[in-house]
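ENTRY TYPE: paired fold submission
RECORD: A
CONTENT: sequence, then structure tokens
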Amino acid sequence: MRRALDAMSKHTLREEEGRVADMEYHAALLNAAGNPFIVSLSKGVTVAVDALTRFKLRITPLKRDPSPDHWRVYEAIAAP
């Protein structure tokens, strides 16, 4: 998740690299649950997140940067 967040922050969701990193982040988050049902949703969720992001970007620039929210989730998971 950390590697994906670093790439997401560096490239932003306007760039392909940033969107790929966002999908990797969400896949890692779902896989970390360790729940087979949740893990089975990983591909569908990541593809849906990417499709929605691309759709939003076609209409208008993103109104806010989602990275801070993603970092807060990561930090909560990584906390001892």
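RECORD: B
CONTENT: sequence, then structure tokens
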Amino acid sequence: MNTSLLRSVTAPGRVNLMGDHTDYNDGFVLPLAIDRACTVRVTDATNRDEVRASSAQLDGLVRVAVDGTTTPSTVEPAWGRFVAGVVRVLVDRGASVGPADLHVDTTVPVGSGLSSSSALAVALTLALGGDGLDRTDAARVASAAETLATGVPGGLMDQLASLFGRTGHALLIDCRDASVTPVAIPTSVAVLVVHCGVPRTLVGSEYASRRAECEAVASALGLAALRDATADQVLEFPRARHVVAENARVLATAAALPRGDLSVLGPLLLESHASLRDDFGVSTPELDTLVDVLVTSGAAGARLTGAGFGGCVVALAQRNHADDVLAKTTLRYRAATGIDPMGFVARAVDGARRVD
């Protein structure tokens, strides 16, 4: 067997600074690719008609037919469904997927709301032949594969963030046309990410029902998506009210971020969290406590990030105070909940790429 290295691909996770549950409503989001990534190493295996995958962090050996006939939902271990999903989507698009051995290595915390699954899907897409696609098409392949793997219909934000990341920048993404505009993050501002200690999973959560509620309101208003709604139109619809207000907050955050104006940015984050908690109903007591503790500890503002239901909080602080904020947050959150949080200062990095 020839086991020479063919290529190695890395795809970063992301933290969403502003704009949750807006992506599947054709709205705006403001994520950044972070210095936590999924790497896939590919070696050839020309004597087989399958893709095999193993992982340093995930259990089991995955085996998937190269012709796309393996049904993703049947694959065990469950993380192998992403391999099957990518293979099927690529084959359906006319690509030829050759036999290969894959080794997956990830530093994106699973169940954190930092897009560990999308980083995996993007890395697999590029590793298995999608590197010939333009980046927007690669994002669509990864997104479709992720839906096949999980059964959860997602937006395109996570995959675009992983592919279009730029060092020192957040990304203003218009989810209607998938356009991406880099937004500079001043060196005076630190982006803090803290896990509340409660894993987040979209499978079995209320994510799909929230999406359906948004689509129902848009349809009742005769709109293609809630992107097109006004604040007056959605006053009586809490889920839609969040989406309309959140889109405005994304644009306001993107305008204030390059100036490093924490007096504007902090309140925007807190408004977003309150909206996600009260109107969209996706927060938890742990996330609420963590937001409060971060602000008490010196952050300018904080909000849950990702879909909610657990996972991480994102906060902004002056860079020269960031370590102190994290240290105080750890002590106070532990005292309040009995849970040890995991926190770090996120560094905005370049998007998915070959590293061999």
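NOTES ON RECORD B: The longest helix spans residues 238-256. The chain has a mean pLDDT of 94.
STATUS: closed
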